[in-house]
Known about the structure:
By secondary structure, this protein is mostly helical.
Amino acid sequence: VLHDAQACVQHVLRMLDAGGIVTADGQHLPTPIHSICVHGDGPDAVASAQQIRQALEAAGYRLAPLPALV
């Protein structure tokens, strides 16, 4: 579990670049990524979500609400 906002950003971008899940030990599990889950029960959750959003938008990703994807 990641708590540092910048570590969360790096992990999300790494998964998107890899086209799948990158495990803690570096394994690559190919899978399409359609959503990012940020658990809201930690003190850094809001900062992490904000920084992830900013990084995704800066990288050119288009964000959409979940209902628009299903």
